[in-house]
Amino acid sequence: MSATELIEQARKQGRAVLTEIESKQILDEAGIPVAKTQLASDADKAVSIADSVGYPVVLKIVSADVTHKSDVGGVKVGIESAEEVRSAFNDIVASVKKTQPDAAIDGVAVQKMAPAGTEVIIGVSKDPQFGPVVMFGLGGILVEVLKDVAFRIVPLEARDARQIIREIKGFPVLEGVRGQDPADIDALEGLILQISQFIEAHPEIEELDLNPVFAYKDGCIAVDARIVIA
Amino acid sequence: MSDNDLNSRLDRAFNPKVVAVVGDKRAMGYLWLNAMKTFTGKVYSVQVDPAEIPGIEAMGIENFPSLSEIPVDVDYVVCAVPRQVSPRIIADCGQKKVGAVALFTSGFAETETDEGIETQNEITDIARASDLLLIGPNCMGIYNRRLGVRHSGDQPAGDAGNVGFISQSGTHCINFSLVGSVRGVKCSKTVSFGNAVILDAPDYIEYLANDHETEVIAIYIEGVKDGPRLLRVLRETARKKPVVVWKGGLSKAGSRAAYSHTASLATAPTIWDAAMKQASVIQADSLDETIDAANVLTYAKPTTGNRMGLIAMTGGQSVVITDTFEREGLEVPLLTQGSYDKLSQFFNIIGGSYRNPLDAGGTIGMGFIPGNLQKLFEILEEDENVDSIAMEMGIGFIARRLRDNPDMLDAMADTLAAHNQKTKKPFLTIVHPGHVEDVSAQVRDKLLERGVGVFANFEAAARALNRSIAYWRFKAGLD
C-alpha cells in the first residue's frame, strides 16, 4: 500500500496512530532509511520471517493501543534462533495480554536486529503558530532526563540541519569520545533534511518519532518509527 | 494583492503628501495634530464636535466634518475616535480610497469582551471589503522622521536616520525613536501596528526590506499570526539587511500580559528561539539591547572575527572590560610580537601594561595625549590578531578638566574620530554615565556627532558586537 492508502486506511479505522510497520512502510517509500519490519500473526510466521531476514532479530508487539512497547513487555532483542523466536513471540503476546488486557493485538513485528550505533532521536510535532517543528537529540536517558534537544522549523535548509545537530550539548558524543567511532554526521544531516521534505509533502502528519535512530561510522538508520496523523 | 502592489501602497502611506487626523481633541492635548506640526505636507482635521472645532482651527488647521469632504486625496489617516464610531470612519476611509489608516482607538479584542471582539471583527470586515490598508487597531501608526510624520510631539524630525522600527507596542515604538535618537540611533521610518487585523508584522518587514532609506530593521513583536510567513519573510530580509528582533511575552506571565495588550497568543520560547536562529536575525531582550544592536550595526564596520583589542584607562577597568568581553563570547588574545616591539618603545608601564588589554591611562594622559593615543590605534589597527577595538573612556576621572576646557574634549573626540574614519575594524567606545552624567552625555554626543559608536557599559558593547559578528558571519556564509 502507498502512503496515501495506508493513511486512508487508518482514518477509516478511526486510528490516528499508525503502527510501526505502517509508519516504516511510508518512510521507506519516501526513501528514508528504516530497519524494515514485517508483521507476524503467529509464531510460525515469525520464525519464517526471521529465517528469511537472518539472525539476530528483534520482535516487537504490534498494537495501535500500545504506546510504550517496552513498558508492557512488548519488545525482545538479540534473538538468535528459530526456537527463541517462537518463545519470544509467545512471551510478548502473553505479557501484553496480562499488562494491558484491553489492547487489540495485530501480531508481532519481526526485523533484523540493526547493529548497535550511537542512538539519536528525530521527532516532528506541530507548533500552533509555526507549524511542523523538527526536534533532534541524543537517544536514551540524555533526551529524557537532560532535555538536551534542539529544534528547527520546517522547512529546514542545509544550514539548519547542520546547526540543529551541533546545538545540543551532547554533540561531542557524535564526534566520537573515548575511542568510539564518530557518527556519520553528514548522513544525519541528510536524514533530517529528508524528514523536513517528507513532512512538507505530508501536511496530514501531526507527529513523527524516529526513536531511536542508530548512527554509524557510515550512514544511519531509523530502528523504530511512529507516525500520528490528524 | 501582490507584494509589489502592497509595497507601493505602503510607500504612499509611509511617505504621505496629505495627512488627515480624525477625532483629535483638547482632552488629549491635540496629541495627533501637535505631532503632525513638523509634517512637511498638508494636514487636515476631521471633527464634528462643535466644542472641539475652534481649538483645532486656532492651530491653523483646516477642519472638515467628514473625510469625504476633504477636497484632495488623502495618503494617510490617523483615527482617534471612540470605539463605537470607528466602523463608520473605517468605512469612510475605504470610500475615500486613502493610502492607509492607523486606528489609534483601542478597546478591541485585547479587552477580551464580546463587544470589543465584535467591533474588531466589524472593522476588519469593512477594511477587507474595501481593500483598505488598516494599521492597528490599538496602535500609534507611522513615524517618518524625514517628512516629520510623527506619533509623538517629542520625536525629532527633518534629518532621516537609517534604522526602521516595527513595533506591536506604541510605547516601545516611541521610546525606540526617542531613546535611540539620544544614543545615536536615528529612525528612518517606524510603525506601531497594535492588534494587526489587516496588516501584520511581515507586511511591514517586507516594506522596510525594500526601503532604501532603511539599512537596519529592528522589531518589537508580541504575537505571531502566521508563523511560517513570518519566518520566511525574516529569512529573506536578513539576507538583504540586518534585522534585530525583540520579542515580548516570552515568559508565562508575560504572555498573559501580551494577550491583554495586543490579543497575542503565547509562543514557546524554545520554538521562537529556533525560528529566530533559522532566520539569522539578531535577538534582543530589551529596549536597550535593541538600541545597542542597531548602534553597532550603524556605527561599526562589519567583522566576522571575534578577537578584541581592548583599551582602558586604569588597571581595574582593564581587568573588568576583559572579563566582560570574554564572558560575552569574544576573545582577548595576545598581540603580535611586532606590536609589542612598538609598544615597548613608548608605553608607560608604571601603573600600566600593554599585553592586551592595554591599561593605557598613563600613556595617553587619560585621553589628553593624542599623539600616543593615535599610536595605540595604529598598532591595534595593524595587529593581525585583532579584529575589533573597544576603548573605555574614564570620564569620571577627567570630568572636571573637560568641563573647564571644552577644547580638550573636542581634541580628544577628534583623535577618536580620525581613527574611526580610517579603521577597517569595528571601533566601539564605552562612556559610562558615572557620577558626572552631564559630562558623560557631552562626551557621548561629541563622539556620536563624529560618527563614533558609544555604549553605556561593557556588557552592552560586548553583547551587541558579538551579536553583530554572528550576523556578519551568516552573511559571509561562515556559519
Record the strand order, biggest sheet of chain B: 3-2-1-4-5-6
Q: Report strand % of chain B.
A: 5-15%
List the chains of the largest interface with their residue counts. Answer: A-B, 15 and 16 residues
Count of individual beta strands of chain B:
17
List low-pLDDT spans of chain B: none
Radius of gyration of chain B: 25 Å
Mean pLDDT of chain A: 93
Give the total of domains of chain A: 2
Structure, explained:
The complex is a heterodimer of chains A (230) and B (479). Chain A starts with a helix and ends with a strand. The radius of gyration of chain A is 18 Å and the shape is globular. Chain A is 38% helix and 27% strand. Chain A is α+β, with helices and mostly antiparallel strands and 230 residues long. In chain B, strand 2, helix 3 (53-58) and strand 3 form a beta-alpha-beta unit. In chain B, helix 6 (170-182) packs across helix 11 (287-299) and helix 8 (227-240) runs parallel beside helix 10 (269-279). The longest helix of chain B is centred in the C-terminal third of the chain and has 18 residues, at 458-475. The two termini of chain B are 36 Å apart. The model of chain B has no long low-confidence stretch (mean pLDDT 95). The interface between A and B is medium-sized, with 15 and 16 residues.
Q: What's the SSE blueprint?
A:
The complex is a heterodimer of chains A (230) and B (479).
Chain A: H1 3-12, H2 20-29, E1 37-40, H3 43-53, E2 57-62, E3 75-79, H4 82-99, E4 107-112, E5 118-127, E6 131-138, H5 141-146, E7 149-153, H6 158-167, H7 171-175, H8 185-201, E8 205-215, E9 220-222, E10 225-229
Antiparallel strand pairs in A: 1-4, 2-3, 2-4, 5-6, 5-8, 6-7, 8-9, 8-10
Helix pairs in contact in A: 3-4, 6-8
Chain B: H1 3-14, E1 18-22, H2 31-35, E2 42-46, H3 53-58, E3 62-64, E4 76-79, H4 86-96, E5 100-103, H5 114-129, E6 134-135, E7 141-144, E8 163-167, H6 170-182, E9 187-192, H7 201-209, E10 216-221, H8 227-240, E11 243-247, H9 252-262, H10 269-279, E12 282-284, H11 287-299, E13 308-312, H12 315-327, H13 337-344, E14 358-359, H14 370-382, E15 388-392, H15 395-404, H16 406-422, E16 427-430, H17 437-449, E17 453-455, H18 458-475
Parallel strand pairs in B: 1-2, 1-4, 2-3, 4-5, 5-6, 8-9, 8-10, 10-11, 11-12, 13-14, 13-15, 15-16, 16-17
Antiparallel strand pairs in B: 7-9
Helix pairs in contact in B: 1-7, 4-5, 6-11, 7-8, 8-10, 11-18, 12-18, 14-16, 15-16
